[in-house]
Write a structure and sequence with these properties.
By secondary structure, this protein is α+β, with helices and mostly antiparallel strands. The chain has five helices and three strands. It has two domains: 73 residues, Orthogonal Bundle (hpI Integrase, Chain A); 32 residues, no CATH class. It has a three-stranded antiparallel β-sheet, with no helix packed on it. β2 and β3 form a beta hairpin.
Length: 133
Amino acid sequence: MPSTYPAPLRDRALIALLVYTFARVSAAIGINVADYYYVQGRRSWARLHEKDGKRHEMPAHHLLETYMDAYLADTGLAADKAGPLPHRCRPYQPAYRPDDPHRRAAHDLASGRGGRHGIDGVGAAATADVAKV
């Protein structure tokens, strides 16, 4: 897996956290860098903040340890202990820019709202006509 873009490493680390700790998604998303730590420099542990203020601390599976260490080393997040562990790799970009009418029309056509642009037969009616043939 190429490490030029950290999203695959982040996703792999988050999925490993979910699978190997049986954590809820909200607990896995809310983990900080300080919540993944080493005890006596040997074994890594994960601390999860669950509902109602409950905290679960558990030793990390060896694959979770491998994936988390690779993600932290590649992104340089290990230095910021208070920072969130799963960071966003790129800012959110909408499917179209509101000021671009061509992208707006293409988005509407793809989502079945072509009548707004004067195109008849797009959406459920076109699907029903194709089904009759």
